[in-house]
Amino acid sequence: MLHLYYTPGTCSLATHIALEEAGAQYEATLVDFRSAEQTKPEYHAINPNGRVPALVTEEGILTESPAILLFIAAQFPDARLAPFDDPFLLGKVQEMNAYLSSTLHVAHAHRFRGYRWADDEAAIKEMSRKAFEVVETCFVHVEENLFAGPFAVGDSYTIADCYLFNFTTWMEADEVDLTRVPKLHEYRERLKERPAIQRALAAQKV
Ligand SMILES: N[C@@H](CCC(=O)N[C@@H](CS)C(=O)NCC(=O)O)C(=O)O
């Protein structure tokens, strides 16, 4: 059976949502950041990089949200979570997910994990200060250039929605001016009503 390692309030919510959307049988284990479980040898045996999510499959362990999400979409084709019959649209799904993973998420991490990039305290403080502005710029780019509507890449709900919804739940904490992202704001409120998203949120008790 699939086994998800997750932490509430993190990017692992996207995988949790995708598993629920797919109707997958899975078990889930909470990795408690409060006791720094992600830094312990027990969790490093699952993900040596010390991050969530990680998904244990019958073939091995997958890390990195875009890879995990694509695996779930391919493993559960009946859920139609990726447009495998439309190469361009599949590219659009990956364009969104790559941007969220490599740019928006990394910008967000500068707010409280600046120690990854600098040792100097003043530099870390400056990264944290600047992060709010950079993250807002990322969300505005998604709003104006990547988001197709009514779902992330168009008319069909895909794994890009599992991932984009996850990040939109951070907008207030990231102090994003919601008047600059009206489509994403409306989108998040609408997607909150999806049963699979509600189940994933309840499972993570967010
Ligand atoms: N590129 C990875 C990023 C994973 C990641 O950074 N996860 C964060 C939570 S959102 C984490 O586990 N942080 C723990 C830490 O930095 O100690 C992905 O997309 O899955």
Describe the model:
Strands 2-1-3-4 form a 4-stranded mixed sheet, covered by helices on one side. Helix content is 51%, strand content 8%. It has helices at 12-22, 41-44, 65-75, 87-109, 121-146, 159-168, 182-191, 195-204; strands spanning 2-6, 26-30, 54-56, 61-63. With 206 residues, it is an alpha+beta fold. The mean pLDDT is 97. It is globular and about 50 Å long. It starts with a strand and ends with a helix. It folds into 2 domains: 2-80 and 200-204, Glutaredoxin, CATH 3.40.30; 87-194, Glutathione S-transferase Yfyf (Class Pi), Chain A, domain 2, CATH 1.20.1050. The chain is built from 8 helices and 4 strands, in the order βαβαββαααααα. The chain binds glutathione (GSH). Glutathione binds next to loops.
Distance between the termini: 25 Å
How would you sum up the global shape?
globular
Low-confidence stretches: none
Tell me the series of helices and strands, N- to C-terminal: EHEHEEHHHHHH
- The counted number of beta strands is 4
Strand order of the largest sheet: 2-1-3-4
The small-molecule ligands in this entry are:
glutathione
Task: Tell me which CATH architecture of the largest domain applies here.
Answer: Up-down Bundle
Q: CATH class of the largest domain, anyone?
A: Mainly Alpha
Q: The biggest beta sheet, please?
A: 4 strands, mixed
Q: What's the pLDDT, averaged over the residues?
A: 97
Structural class based on helices, strands and sheet pairing: alpha+beta
**Overall number of structural domains:** 2
- Taking all Cα atoms into account, the compactness measure Rg is 17 Å
State the helicity in percent bands.
40-55%
Strand content: 5-15%
Number of helices: 8
CATH fold category name of the largest domain: Glutathione S-transferase Yfyf (Class Pi), Chain A, domain 2
